[in-house]
Design a protein that fits this description.
By secondary structure, the chain is α+β, with helices and mostly antiparallel strands. It is built from 18 helices and 21 strands. A hairpin with a 5-residue loop joins strand 2 and strand 3.
Length: 521
């Protein structure tokens, strides 16, 4: 790269509830940041859709904010890399114009299609073939639903595309190509070939001619158009590159590019991603597998859907004390919560919190399960409940990490924590103590958008390899070691935590509770 001037790389993360745009230099230093929210809509119970024009407007607004804060000359900009929602797809006409709202990854309109697909392919065979558990949440089921329930829209649709392809097109891309790292939650990929699965496409009722061809993450897609430059504030002519799916971008942004490396993003939900050189490394079936942001490689994933959401739930419903204290001190209510938890001993005097407020995902995939406090006594205080909440989130993370250790040949040798939940050293130490593994925390917590920028930087030729780009732009800020004094205590507590869950689930009580809610609310 030319010396003596700033080289700027743009990362765009068009997420489910908002778009983050950040501008980085070649050392991974953040130069500008923008964020713009947009809504999802639910036209029927359990459905989730999004107006793609509002997402596009969010991308433009967030880009203008980031450009204004960076204050860089046009010649500093080198590339744009894009991260997008996985499993959210658009129905487009022949001119690539939207025919309807996009159908979002968490839309539940196609619940019956798990059983319909299972008549043609067993769940076991489906996972081996696609890398994914057989589920009605993947895009494949929703495309089949459109075929059977909205045939006019289905027939008018020329292209079924992910957000990444559509928004790159709006930015000016000439190449109409997707990539394996953006297709994980589509459930339509032949995992060994990292290409579309003709077998699954047949179940959906479409052929390859209605889908973008599969290329590689980081591939160049074109240059920013004059119209897009006016809309985003970015300079026309800079290189546009495919990035990857959001979680694969997060892995790149955390430096997870080699066998044995993994990162756990602790946000509203929590997702853990590990690098795979080969599918032959997989020994179990507790996780799901996809294409990585590293071209030609795979990733393996697991999740806990309610980590940060649990803390937000406490703040919104029970956290008046913490909100008042944070207002007095001028700091985050979450930092106050962690401070309060520190006044309670490890193990919270026997109080346990199950963090399954939106179901348990890895390793049980129990949609009916719900959370709650267990073991409360008259001797427990507010600080004990807050500590139990934080410890409960960490125990669910441990269940995910244990699945990676058992399912990957060689396990995890370099474990990293990222996301907003890692901004508190106190909470990171609780996570580390309960998981029982040393953890590294990256300097840049917004790893998803950094990963997108890194893929754009590499794709534009600013770096000779992904390894070189990551080594230059990803910095580890701190390392945490498990506290040996609490190891036995937390091992004992984890067995109780998991045992409570298994006993309730085996007795059918979660399902009975779900049926109760459906009958009465």
């Amino acid at each position: 790269m030319p010396a003596g001037r700033v080289n700027a790389f743009v990362g765009i993360d068009a997420g489910t509830t908002g778009c983050t745009v950040m501008i980085f230099d070649e050392r991974g230093n953040a130069l500008g940041h923008g964020y713009e929210e947009y809504p999802c809509v639910s036209p029927n119970p359990g459905w989730s859709e999004q107006d793609v024009e509002l997402v596009w407007a969010g991308i433009c607004a967030a880009s203008r904010q980031a450009v204004a804060k960076a204050g860089l000359p046009a010649e500093a900009y080198r590339s744009v890399g894009l991260s997008s929602q996985r499993g959210t797809f658009c129905a487009l006409d022949a001119d690539k114009r939207p025919l309807a709202n996009s159908i979002v990854w968490n839309c539940g309109r196609a619940l019956k299609y798990r059983d319909i697909f299972a008549k043609e392919i067993s769940p076991e065979e489906h996972q081996v073939h696609t890398g994914m558990q057989l589920s009605p949440l993947w895009a494949a089921a929703k495309i089949a639903w459109l075929r059977d329930n909205e045939p006019t829209l289905f027939d008018r649709t020329r292209w079924f595309a992910n957000g990444q392809e559509y928004f790159l097109h709006r930015l000016g891309a000439e190449e109409w190509v997707t990539d394996p790292a953006s297709l994980t939650l589509n459930g339509m990929m032949d995992i060994r070939k990292l290409d579309w699965s003709d077998r699954i496409l047949a179940l959906c009722g479409i052929g390859r001619d209605r889908l973008p061809p599969v290329g590689i993450p980081s591939g160049q897609a074109g240059v920013l158009s004059k119209a897009a430059a006016e809309a985003t504030g970015l300079p026309a002519g800079i290189t546009l590159c495919r990035g990857a799916g959001d979680q694969q971008c997060a892995a790149i942004g955390a430096g997870v590019i080699r066998q044995g490396m993994a990162e756990f993003t602790v946000g509203t939900s929590g997702v853990m991603v590990a690098h795979l050189d080969s599918l032959d490394r997989i020994k179990g079936r507790n996780l799901w597998w996809g294409g990585h942001g590293v071209p030609g490689a795979w990733d393996i994933e697991g999740a806990a859907f309610s980590l940060g959401a649990c803390l937000k739930w406490w703040r919104n419903n029970l956290g008046r004390n913490e909100l008042d204290e944070s207002s007095r001190q001028g700091r985050s209510p979450y930092s106050v919560m962690v401070e309060q938890a520190g006044k309670s001993p490890p193990g919270a005097k026997g109080a346990i919190f199950h963090s399954f407020l939106t179901s348990q995902v890895t390793p049980y995939y129990d949609a009916a399960s719900r959370g709650g406090f267990l073991g409360l006594g008259l001797y427990h205080e507010r600080q004990d409940m807050i500590r139990a909440l934080l410890e409960g989130c960490a125990h669910e993370m441990r269940m995910v990490v244990d699945s990676f250790e058992s399912d990957i040949d060689g396990g995890i040798t370099d474990f990293r924590l990222t996301g907003g939940g890692t901004k508190s050293d106190g909470f990171v130490q609780i996570m580390t103590d309960i998981i029982g593994k040393p953890a590294r925390v990256t300097r840049e917590r917004e790893c998803t958008v950094l990963g997108a920028a890194i893929l754009g930087a590499y794709g534009s030729g600013a770096f000779a390899s992904i390894d070189e780009a990551v080594d230059a732009m990803v910095q580890v800020e701190a390392e945490f070691e498990p506290n040996g004094k609490t190891g036995n205590l937390y091992n004992d507590q984890h067995q109780i935590y998991r045992g409570f869950y298994e006993a309730i689930a085996a007795a059918g009580q979660y399902q009975q509770l779900a049926d109760f809610v459906a009958r009465h609310y």
